[in-house]
Every structure is written in C-alpha cells, then in structure tokens.
Design goal:
With about 130 residues, the chain is an all-alpha fold. Helices cover about 55% and strands about 0% of the residues. It is built from 6 helices and no strands. It starts with 9 loop residues before the first helix and ends in a 19-residue tail after the last helix. This is Helix-turn-helix domain-containing protein. Belongs to the IS150/IS1296 orfA family. It comes from Oceanobacillus luteolus. It holds the Pfam family HTH_28.
Length: about 130
C-alpha cells in the first residue's frame, strides 16, 4: 500500500531471507544485523516465498483492496480464525499495520471503503 523505500538493497534483503530460510541464522539475529524489526524480516520471508525476488522489490505503486476483501479479512481476524500475520498471508495484505487500520475503522463503526490511491494514513491501536 505504501510507496516506502527500504534502507536495504534488494540484494541485501534477498541475502537476509535466504539465510533465514536455510536456517543458518535466526530471524532475531538477522533483524539485529540489519537494524530492523523481526516483523520486517518475517514480511520479507513471506513476500519472497510468494513472489521470489520480485516480492522484495521496492513498491512503486499503491496496492488496492476492495471493501469486500477488507471486511472479510477484518471479520476473519476478529472471529479468531487467524493472527494478524496469518490473516495478512491468507488475504495477501501488504502488512499487519494495514490490517490494523481496517480493524480500527471497522470496530469504530466507520465504513470500510475500497482503497484509493494516495489516501492518508490512520493512526492505529492494533
């Protein structure tokens, strides 16, 4: 969803993912080496598994989500059918912070609309 750029090159991200997947280094150790959160490493691994090296390229476009997909994902999570991570994996959501925004909108009674390009961010409590 975001146009954020990583502080790490594509090759660095691939190297980190492969080291984790080989089991030669823990996620915690890689996170410390690259000065990122463990969640970031887990996201890199998920994206690599889904799309190979292309999954780790910096995004230059916004990812759109339909209101139906958002509602399904939120209800899946709130019904206890999955964690933030597994819900993001199941519904191909870019990050758990995106899902948290939807959850906060849903639980506050706001309408969940389809994602449109360039929408502002919402502080989340998730």
């Amino acid at each position: 969803m975001s146009k954020r750029r990583s502080n790490h090159t594509l090759n660095e991200r691939i190297e980190a993912v492969l080291r984790v997947m080989e089991g030669s280094v823990s996620v915690s150790r890689i996170a410390k080496e690259y000065a990122v959160d463990r969640t970031t490493i887990n996201v890199w691994v998920r994206k690599y598994k889904e799309n190979g090296g292309d999954g780790l390229k910096d995004s230059r476009t916004w990812k759109g989500y339909s209101s139906e997909l958002k509602r399904e994902a939120v209800e899946f999570y709130l019904n206890g059918e999955g964690s933030l991570r597994t819900t993001c994996e199941k519904f191909n959501i870019s990050s758990h912070s995106v899902l948290c925004q939807w959850i906060n909108q849903y639980t506050s009674g706001k309408e969940i609309k389809s994602t449109s390009k360039g929408r502002g961010t919402v502080k989340n409590r998730c």
